[in-house]
């Protein structure tokens, strides 16, 4: 349940103020317009044999170290994705033994959480999503069900509409996602990187080489892209010592050097 900060200027980790209410894994986070960080419900560490019974967002204030449970999604869920848009946060999908197709909108300024009538056309376990330069949210499914198993869904947070943009044969789960300044998205798997262009609606194998990261398991890793285009991949199942619940017990290693 510890929180760490990575300083890109000094290449050092440090423990941040405060700690989470409980250890958790397989969750997503997004920065609200109020400067606080919100985490979706995750797994564990001990309830229900490690699967957890969590259904609330966690609000973390970096300035004070306060970390408290907040808005209730109304059902136990994990593996959802949080994406910030104009200060609000959208929570997309999830898993709780089966696929969850719900979409929620959380407004940090008022603390109001609402479930949208819009639902995901398809569901899957371990998705990744990100806001594009066109202000659309691209939701890449992880392990899907049916043939083909993978798909890209596009959600417009301005009018709460969604569509199924692309299906493909590849499956991936809990892997890092990032994009470049031209609005191309990259999905980093252990053996290869896939590239998706919304302009052409084409998903293909990228020539990008992850280097050392490609030799390790990226399960659970996150990608962070800086304004200058540099991307950092943080964590992964073999980059820290994991407990039986799947939560890292030490700061993860950092893989640096990915470029657009």
Outline of this structure?
The chain is an all-beta fold. The protein has strands at 2-7, 12-19, 29-31, 37-39, 56-60, 67-72, 81-85, 88-95, 99-107, 112-115, 128-131, 137-140, 150-156, 161-168, 177-179, 185-188, 193-197, 202-205, 222-225, 231-234, 254-258. The protein has no helices and 21 strands.
Q: What does this protein structure show overall?
A:
The chain is built from no helices and 21 strands. The strands form six sheets. A four-stranded antiparallel sheet has the order 3-4-5-6, with no helix packed on it. It has a four-stranded antiparallel sheet with strand order 7-8-9-10, with no helix packed on it. A four-stranded antiparallel sheet has the order 11-12-13-14, with no helix packed on it. Strand 5 (56-60) and strand 6 form a beta hairpin. The protein has strands at 2-7, 12-19, 29-31, 37-39, 56-60, 67-72, 81-85, 88-95, 99-107, 112-115, 128-131, 137-140, 150-156, 161-168, 177-179, 185-188, 193-197, 202-205, 222-225, 231-234, 254-258. It is mainly beta and 260 residues long. Helix content is 0%, strand content 42%.
């Amino acid at each position: 349940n510890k929180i760490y900060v990575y300083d890109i200027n000094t290449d050092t980790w440090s423990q941040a103020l405060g700690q989470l209410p409980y250890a958790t894994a397989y969750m997503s986070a997004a920065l609200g317009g109020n400067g606080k960080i919100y985490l979706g419900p995750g797994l564990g560490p001990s309830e229900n044999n490690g699967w957890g019974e969590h259904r609330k967002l966690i609000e973390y204030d970096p300035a004070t170290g306060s970390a408290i449970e907040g808005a209730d999604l109304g059902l136990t869920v994990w593996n959802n994705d949080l994406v910030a848009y104009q200060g609000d946060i959208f929570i997309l999908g999830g898993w709780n033994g089966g696929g969850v197709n719900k979409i929620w909108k959380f407004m940090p300024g008022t603390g109001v959480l609402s479930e949208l009538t819009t639902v995901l056309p398809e569901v899957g376990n371990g998705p990744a999503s990100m806001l594009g330069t066109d202000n659309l949210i691209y939701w890449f499914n992880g392990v899907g069900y049916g043939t083909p198993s993978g798909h890209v869904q596009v959600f417009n947070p301005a009018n709460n509409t969604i569509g199924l943009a692309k299906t493909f044969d590849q499956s991936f789960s809990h892997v890092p996602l990032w994009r470049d300044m031209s609005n191309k998205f990259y999905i980093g798997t252990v053996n290869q990187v896939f590239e998706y262009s919304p302009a052409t609606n084409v998903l293909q194998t990228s020539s990008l080489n992850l280097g050392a990261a490609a030799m390790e398991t990226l399960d659970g890793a996150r990608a962070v892209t800086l304004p200058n285009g540099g991307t950092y991949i943080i964590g992964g199942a073999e980059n820290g010592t994991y407990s039986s619940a799947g939560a890292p017990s030490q700061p993860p290693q950092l893989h640096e050097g990915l470029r657009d």
